[in-house]
Write a structure and sequence with these properties.
about 650 residues, alpha+beta, 22 strands, about 45% helix
Length: about 650
C-alpha cells in the first residue's frame, strides 16, 4: 500500500508528505524504488499482476485435475515460485532495503514473512494470492491518487511559463520572473496572464477558474485589476504589471496548496504514530501466537500455529488506516480548491468542524465594498440638473464616493466646474457655470449657514448635500451594497450548525446595525478599531466559543490571527489578511464559508468511517484467525477489501456537491 504515499510524497518538488505504512517507509531515500516515473513498472503496470494471476490460476487447476500426477514435488514448487516472483520480488526487495536502513517494522516485512512462511508450509497458492491481491490493491490506489490529485494538478498546470513584455519599442518573450513592476505586457487570445496587473485595454473577457474556481468568463474594464493564471478569452490585451511573478496571485495560490499537504491534521499525526507502535506489536504477537500455545495446548502442532500466525500478519497490516486517512484529507483539500476555497493545511479541515461561532467584518465580506448611488432627492430643481451640477464638481475628485456618483451619467454636458477646492473632511467648493456650488456633508452646509431638512437626521447611509448660490437644492444617499449571496450565506452557515453569527465592523454603528438587521444576525457592533475587534473576539473565546473570523482588510489581520480559524476573502482581500488567514475564499463569496465548513465535516466523517471500518474488520478477522476459523484466503480478501473500500470511500469527496 506504499504507492499512494509515494505519490503524495512526489506531488511536487516542494512537498514531502512523510507519511508511511508501518514505520517511516516514505522517505526520499526510499521513494525511488516505488516512484511512478516512466520506465518503473514494479508497482504501476498491470503486467506483473496479470502474469502472476494467470500462473496462479493455472497452477490451481493443475492441483485439482488429472494433471496432479505430473504437477507435484519440485515441478509444483518451481511453477509457483516463478508465479510469485513478478509480484513478490519488489516487496521482498523493498523490505530488505528498509531493513538495511534500520526500519524493520514495515508492511513489506509483514507481507514477506507471511508469504515466505506460506511457502515453507507448502501453501504456495495462498502465498502467491497475498502478493497478487496486494499488487491489485496498489493499482487501485494508484488510480485513486490520480483522481485525488486532479484538482491540484490542474492548478500546477496553469503556471504561466513566459511573458510578452514591451521593451525597446517591441514586445519580447521573456521568463515571467524577469518582468519588473510597472512594465507593459501583452497577452494573446487563449494565453494565460503571467503576472498580476492593471488592464490597459478598454475591456477583456477572462476565464478566472484557476483563481476563483468559477468557470464563467469575467468581464474586466480598463484600469481594473487582472490576476496571473487567468486566461484571455477574446482579443489581444495589454496589462501594466503591479506585482512581481513570485508575489502574483497564482504563485501565492500554488504555494498555499503545495504547503497545505505538508500540514497534517491531529488525526493523521495520531495514526502515523499509532502505526509505528502497532506494526512491531503485531509482529511480536504473531511470534507469540506461533510459540506460546506450546505451553498451554496439549495437542500443539507447530505448522498449524505458524499458519495462524501468518494469517494474523496478513490481516494486521495497517495499510487501510495509514493510506486512506491521508487520502481523505488530501481529497478534502483538492475538493476545496475546486470550489475556490484554499485550506492552508489538513489541520484546518479538522478545526473548521469544531467552530460554533462565526464573526465577520462588513465591508468587503458581506458587502461589495463599492459605493453605489441609492437615492436622489431634489428641492426646487430637476433630478438631471442636480446631478449635472454634482457630477461636474465630483469629476475632479478621486474619492470613492466621487467614482460612485460619476457612474450616474458619463455623458459630457455643458456644465463645467472651475475653482474647485476641497474642505478637508467636509466636501468640495467651486464654481459651475458661474454659480457657487457646495457639495459635501451636513457640516459643510452648516458652516456656510445653509439649512438642511430634518429628514437627513434619520438617514444612516452616506449623504452628499448640494447647495447652489447658498440655497440647498437636494441630496443623494450612497451605500455599500450587500453581496448577491450574502443573505443565502447566513442561512447556509446556520444550517451547518453554527449557533452564533456576529458582525464586527469599523464602519459607523448605525450602518452596521442596519446591515446586521437585514441579514438577521445575532449581534452586531460598529465603529470598532482593529484592537477593539480583537478584544471582542477574545471575550467570545473565553465564553467557550470556538470562533471563526471572516475578513478581508489589513485591519482584520490581528483578529484573523487570534481567532480559532481565520477566513480571508482572497479575491479583493489585502495580502496581509490573506497571509494571516487559515482559509482563503478565492471567489469573495460569503456563501463559500458554509461550503468550507461542509467540506471539513465531510472529510472528517469519511476519515472516521475509514478508521471504524478498518479497525472493526481487522479485529474480527484477527480473532477468527487466532482461533483457527479464518484461512489465508480470508485474510487476503479482508485486508485488500478493507483497504479498497476505505480508498473508494475517500475518493467520494471528489464527487460530492456542497452547494445544494
Amino acid at each position: 500500500m506504499h504507492v499512494l504515499i509515494s505519490e503524495l510524497c512526489n506531488m511536487s518538488d516542494q512537498v514531502n508528505v512523510n507519511t508511511s505504512c508501518g514505520s517511516g517507509c516514505c522517505s526520499n531515500e526510499h521513494s525511488h524504488s516505488h516512484s511512478h516515473g516512466e520506465g518503473n513498472t514494479k508497482f504501476k503496470t498491470y503486467l506483473p499482476a496479470i502474469v502472476s494471476f494467470i500462473m496462479l490460476v493455472v497452477g490451481m487447476l493443475f492441483d485439482y485435475t488429472v494433471f496432479l500426477c505430473f504437477f507435484k514435488g519440485w515441478v509444483r514448487l518451481v511453477w509457483y515460485a516463478i508465479a510469485y516472483l513478478p509480484v513478490g520480488l519488489p516487496v521482498l526487495k523493498a523490505g530488505f532495503e528498509s531493513i538495511k536502513r534500520g526500519d524493520f517494522f514495515t508492511e513489506f516485512l509483514l507481507m514477506s514473512i507471511a508469504t515466505i512462511g506460506a511457502f515453507v508450509l507448502g501453501e504456495y497458492p495462498e502465498g502467491i494470492a497475498v502478493m497478487v491481491f496486494y499488487s491489485v490493491g496498489e493499482l487501485f490506489q494508484d488510480a485513486a491518487v490520480q483522481k485525488a490529485r486532479g484538482n491540484i494538478k490542474a492548478l500546477l498546470d496553469v503556471r504561466p511559463n513566459e511573458a510578452s513584455v514591451y521593451r525597446d519599442n517591441i514586445f519580447s518573450t521573456v521568463l515571467p520572473d524577469t518582468v519588473a513592476i510597472g512594465e507593459k505586457i501583452q497577452v494573446l487570445v487563449g494565453e494565460k496572464i503571467p503576472l498580476d496587473g492593471i488592464l490597459l485595454s478598454k475591456r477583456a473577457s477572462l476565464n478566472t477558474a484557476a483563481i476563483t474556481g468559477e468557470s464563467k468568463p469575467q468581464n474586466v474594464l480598463q484600469n481594473e485589476a487582472v490576476f496571473a493564471g487567468s486566461i484571455n478569452m477574446e482579443h489581444v490585451i495589454e496589462i501594466k504589471t503591479t506585482k512581481e511573478f513570485k508575489d502574483s496571485s497564482i504563485a501565492r495560490i500554488l504555494d498555499l496548496v503545495q504547503n497545505a499537504t505538508a500540514r497534517k491534521s491531529k488525526t493523521e499525526l495520531f495514526i502515523r504514530k499509532f502505526a509505528r507502535i502497532y506494526t512491531p506489536i503485531v509482529t511480536f504477537l504473531a511470534i507469540a501466537v506461533t510459540f506460546l500455545p506450546y505451553f498451554f495446548v496439549s495437542d500443539y502442532v507447530f505448522g498449524e500455529w505458524l499458519y495462524r500466525a501468518l494469517i494474523f500478519l496478513v490481516i494486521s497490516c495497517p495499510c487501510a488506516l495509514v493510506i486512506s486517512i491521508p487520502l481523505g484529507y488530501f481529497g478534502g483539500l483538492g475538493a476545496a480548491s475546486r470550489n475556490g476555497i484554499l485550506f492552508k493545511g489538513a489541520s484546518f479541515l479538522d478545526t473548521i468542524t469544531k467552530i460554533n461561532s462565526v464573526v465577520m467584518d462588513k465591508t468587503g465580506t458581506v458587502t461589495k465594498g463599492v459605493f453605489k448611488l441609492k437615492e436622489i432627492k431634489t428641492f426646487g430643481v430637476s433630478e438631471n440638473e442636480l446631478m449635472h451640477y454634482l457630477t461636474a464638481m465630483e469629476s475632479k475628485s478621486t474619492h470613492p464616493i466621487a467614482k460612485a456618483l460619476m457612474k450616474y451619467n458619463n455623458d459630457k454636458t455643458h456644465y463645467v466646474a472651475s475653482s474647485i477646492s476641497e474642505i478637508q473632511g467636509k466636501g468640495l467648493v467651486g464654481i459651475v457655470n458661474n454659480k457657487a456650488v457646495l457639495v459635501g456633508n451636513k457640516v459643510l452646509m452648516q458652516v456656510n449657514d445653509i439649512s438642511v431638512p430634518d429628514e437627513l437626521n434619520s438617514i444612516v447611509e452616506t449623504i452628499v448635500c448640494i447647495a447652489i448660490d447658498k440655497v440647498f437644492v437636494g441630496y443623494v444617499s450612497i451605500a455599500d451594497e450587500l453581496k448577491d449571496d450574502a443573505q443565502v450565506a447566513i442561512q447556509d452557515i446556520r444550517d451547518t450548525g453554527i449557533s452564533k453569527i456576529v458582525m464586527l465592523s469599523g464602519d459607523k454603528d448605525a450602518i452596521t446595525q442596519k446591515v446586521a438587521k437585514k441579514l438577521k444576525l445575532d449581534r452586531a457592533k460598529g465603529g470598532l478599531l482593529p484592537e477593539e475587534k480583537l478584544n471582542e473576539v477574545e471575550v467570545m473565546k473565553t465564553e467557550h466559543n470556538k470562533v471563526a473570523f471572516v475578513g478581508d482588510g489589513i485591519n482584520d489581520a490581528p483578529v484573523l490571527a487570534a481567532s480559532d480559524i481565520g477566513i480571508a476573502m482572497g479575491g479583493l482581500g489585502s495580502d496581509v489578511a490573506i497571509e494571516t488567514a487559515d482559509v482563503i475564499i478565492q471567489t469573495d463569496q460569503p456563501s463559500k464559508i458554509a461550503t468550507a465548513i461542509k467540506i471539513g465535516k465531510s472529510t472528517r466523517h469519511i476519515v472516521w468511517q475509514n478508521i471504524a471500518l478498518a479497525f472493526g474488520v481487522k479485529f474480527i478477522i484477527l480473532f477468527l484467525g487466532i482461533i483457527g476459523l479464518a484461512s489465508m484466503w480470508g485474510a487476503v480478501f479482508a485486508d485488500v477489501g478493507v483497504a479498497l473500500l476505505a480508498i473508494l470511500n475517500a475518493v467520494r469527496l471528489q464527487n460530492m456537491n456542497w452547494d445544494k
